[in-house]
Amino acid sequence: MSFVTDKTSSHEVSGASDTAWDHAVEQIIHAGRRMDRRGWVPATAGNLSVRLADGRIAVTRSGGHKGFLTRQGVIEVGLNGASMRPEDRPSAETLLHCQIYAHFPDAGAVLHGHSVASTVLSMATNEPEFYLADYEVLKVFEGQTTHETQLAVPVFPNDQDIARLSRSVALFLDEMKAGYIIRGHGVYVWGPDMATALARLEGLEFLLACELEQTKLRAVTQGARS
Ligand SMILES: CSC[C@@H](O)[C@@H](O)C(=O)COP(=O)(O)O
Ligand SMILES: [Zn+2]
Q1: Could you tell me the pLDDT band of residue 225, with boundaries at 50, 70 and 90?
Q2: Is 161 a member of any domain?
Q3: Which residues form the domain of 74?
Q4: Is the CB of 93 inside a 6 Å radius of any atom of ligand 1?
Q5: Whole-structure pTM over 0.90, yes or no?
Q6: Which among 49, 66, 48, 60 has a CA at the least distance from the CA of 3?
Q7: Is the predicted ipTM greater than 0.85, yes or no?
Q8: How far is the CA of 102 from the CAs of 85, 170, 183, 198, 208, in angstroms?
């Protein structure tokens, strides 16, 4: 398996200059590197997308390493998740990106990563939600003005049938303030633009890492008492 794709992009074939597309691709490449540095896209995990002002959707090609993306690693899909060129294989989870764009007219970027914290914590519980309370960083999420609050992050069972998974997610999209978790898999976060989506992803991952540390601390404390 090669981590770096050598495919040609449709935007290169046309030869026409497309500044908006180039900017979207740059943002995705930059965000992929950042997620890789944080350890959130191991191996070929994760996918990233941007919706341009003209409605086009740029998403990562399936199977490459998201920390080593090139221009050719980003391709265009329609709102139905289908690639504009039959030979281009978009992310296997493109439908999850497109459902966010379809549901939230102001969504401009979607990020998906596989962190250790989201994977381990979601596998340690069968609850359908994960609660984050009293953290200052909660204010990174839309509408949050104080640490004196509690945010529910839905946890969905993992499913290789992405259309079926998207139907489960659809029922809860309106209530989501901080994105969602797929059990044993990872997180989905979005925002009006890439900078906001990245900030929300970093906020959620920070909080999940705190929760993981607290779980370990409780285990050590309980072990010392018994
Ligand atoms: C390392 S396998 C991960 C995949 O199954 C999937 O969950 C994922 O996040 C990446 O899939 P991709 O099709 O490259 O977007
Ligand atoms: Zn994934």
Answers
A1: confident
A2: yes
A3: 10-220
A4: yes
A5: yes
A6: 66
A7: yes
A8: 21, 11, 24, 20, 27
